[in-house]
Every structure is written in C-alpha cells, then in structure tokens.
C-alpha cells in the first residue's frame, strides 16, 4: 500500500498561493525600482540645474533667464515631491507583498512538516504491521512444526 498524504490538495493550493505571492512581490519590486529611478532622475536634473545656474550667476545672467530657471526648478520640485510619494507608496506595497510572501512560506512549511510527520507515522505503522505479520507467520510455522 502506497503512502497518500491526506492534505495533498491543500498543500498544492498553498504552494500555488505562495508562487502567486512570489510573483506579486517581484512585480512590486520592479515597480518600486522604476519609480525610484524616476525620482533619482528628477533629483539629478535638479542638482545639475542648480549647479548650472550657480555657474551662470558667476558669469552673469539675465533676470528673465533667472525667472525661467526658477520656474523650471519649482516644477522639478513638484515632480520630485510627487515621485517621493509614489516611492513611499511603492515601498509600502512592496513591504506588504513581502509580508504576504513570508506568511505563505510559513503556511507551506507547516503543511510540509505535517506531511513529514504523517509519513513517519505511516512508515512506523507499516513496520509494525510487517512485524505482526512476521510474528503470525512464525507462530504458524512453530505450530505446524509442533503438530508433526
């Protein structure tokens, strides 16, 4: 008689849920990285613009150009603020999916542990049954020899 785990369907369902959680977590990491890269790009543009503006101020600058760059910097700061919020949201989402994945890992491990214990019990019971059969065969052989 072969071993049949009674919670095999549940274990396979939990493993599938774990894989889905893994996939969602990987997607959230990618989205976080994309948003973080855009934020970095805007911060870099602002830094470059400020250093360019500082160089221009040393060599002379028209008031109209100063206003133009200030408007541009103000727009960059709005974009930076927007992307900072997106990064925070993406990080929170990524952390949430990470927690979900950890939870799924724990669930799968529980069912795997139960399967291990159940399989050990199955082997123990099978060994006991085999020993009982051997004992019965021994007793029958002894009885048959004794009757002759």
Word description of this protein:
The protein is mainly α and 148 residues long. It is built from two helices and no strands. Helix 1 runs antiparallel to helix 2. The radius of gyration is 35 Å and the shape is rod-shaped.
Keywords:
148 residues; mainly alpha; Helix Hairpins
Itemize the secondary structure elements and their pairings.
Blueprint: H1 8-59, H2 63-147
Helix pairs in contact: 1-2
Q: What can be said about this structure in brief?
A:
The chain has two helices and no strands. By secondary structure, it is mainly α.
The CATH topology of the domain at 8-110: Helix Hairpins
Question: Which class of secondary structure composition applies to the elements?
Answer: mainly alpha
- Proportion in helices: over 70%
Major β-sheet profile: none
Mean pLDDT: 92
Q: In CATH terms, what is the architecture of the domain at 8-110? A: Orthogonal Bundle
**Low-confidence runs:** none
Number of helices: 2
Spatial shape: rod-shaped
How much strand content do the residues show?
A: under 5%
Order of helices and strands: HH
CATH top level label of the domain at 8-110: Mainly Alpha
Number of strands: 0
Kindly, what is the distance between the CA atoms of the first and last residues, rounded to a whole number of angstroms?
36 Å
Question: Mind telling me the C-alpha Rg?
Answer: 35 Å
């Amino acid at each position: 008689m072969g071993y049949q785990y009674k919670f095999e369907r549940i274990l396979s369902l939990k493993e599938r849920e774990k894989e889905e959680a893994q996939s969602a977590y990987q997607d959230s990491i990618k989205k976080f990285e994309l948003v973080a890269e855009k934020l970095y790009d805007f911060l870099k543009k602002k830094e470059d613009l400020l250093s360019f503006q500082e160089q221009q101020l040393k060599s002379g600058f028209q008031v109209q150009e100063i206003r133009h760059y200030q408007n541009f910097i103000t727009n960059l700061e709005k974009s930076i603020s927007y992307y900072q919020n997106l990064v925070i949201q993406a990080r929170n989402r990524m952390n949430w999916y990470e927690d979900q994945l950890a939870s799924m890992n724990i669930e799968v491990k529980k069912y795997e542990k139960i399967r291990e214990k159940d399989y050990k019990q199955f082997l123990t019971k099978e060994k006991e049954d085999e020993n009982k059969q051997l004992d019965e065969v021994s007793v029958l052989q002894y009885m048959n020899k004794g009757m002759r």
